[in-house]
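In line with agreed milestones, the collection of sequences with tokenised folds has grown. One record among many is set out beneath this paragraph:
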Amino acid sequence: MKLKLAFFILIFISVYAKAQNEDLKYQDWVYKPYIKTVRFDNITSQDSPAPVIPLVSSEKLLLQFDDLNAGTQDYYYTIVHCTADWKPSNISSIDYLEGYTEDRIIEYKYSFNTIQSYTHYGLVFPSSTMKPMIPGNYLLKVYLNNDPNDLVLTRRFYVNRQQVNIIPEVVRGTVIKSRNQTQKVNFTIQHPALNVSNPMAEIKTVITQNDRPDNMILGMRPTFIRTNELVYNDMDFGTFTGGSEFRNFDTRSLRFFSQHIQDIQKEKGRTDVYLFGDDNYSQTAYSTLADLNGNYAIRNQDGGGDAEVDADYTRVHFALAKTEPSTTGDYYLFGKLTDYQIKDDYKLYFNEVTRALETQQMIKQGYYDYSYVFVPNGQKVGDECASEGCHYETDNVYTIYVYFKPPGKRYDELVGVRRFNSKMFFIIR
């Protein structure tokens, strides 16, 4: 009887653990509502703030996040090697991980002179106790109390062993009816250091626009195959909508109103920041505007100099005016501040009084880019053209990733990364 009971307990634990693991998303994701302002950047290379590091170098990534519950928690982390399309690689951790298989995040600081109390955590990676041994895509997992199923956040990052030369080009889209709204990325891969016998099967490429995961282009095949060179310029692939320059708001100071702030209301226990209503730009002409290509920077001009712990959280109110709600989809706030995710947390709701689509978000003080996107029912890719307009002249940051998997290799090896701005290829008159 005891053996039978033990058997059923083991089955229950196994099923429960499997169900918990199925919640793991191989993308940038936050699993706890009290975790805010997650950043994971290269802090040693000005040329690549994205989470990309060479395999053999002194470059480091810095993970930062805030716990609005304050106090201290036991946060642990590990890394998982992934395929080019972000699925778990079929290799053991001993094949890609040097040092411990998991470790604890021990660096933290308490917020200072803020209305919203929080604890700021930091992790510099690779560390002396854990580092990746092979190139490729990786997922960083952070979890509570040494329990890998109690997920807190996940973040993608890349380890590159540069073995190819990538020559990019950005041109207007090739489809006549949309060429004023689109940008097409062509590129050439020069690979004299690689023995590529079957490029169609052994080489994989990924293109991202402003580090967005929802509209990345995978699976492009070379148009021309030459000696030690692959050319990608097929007319039917590599095209992105151009979008527009990002909108922005500035909460670096809560004592003075910056350009796009209509009102700041301070009450006991909270601060509300009301932005001026945003017009719908879907039918407007292109306008040049300096932006951060969707990114943001944590800053506090009223504090003591350490914005990571003296910048406060405010409730920022967004409003998209002159845009009626649609039965065919929904509008969402979008940008790095939302991790470029289409989630209900960032959905806009129609206010019958103001006649605008609105949302409010808890956001740390700083300078932020943002936009609005429309997501049709049943779709996962945000369409910025419906609210921002789309123009071929828009300055976007593109990144090309090249992977190599020859016969006998059990994983996709990242052998090339090239990051560039589209404005390099267009002269705006």
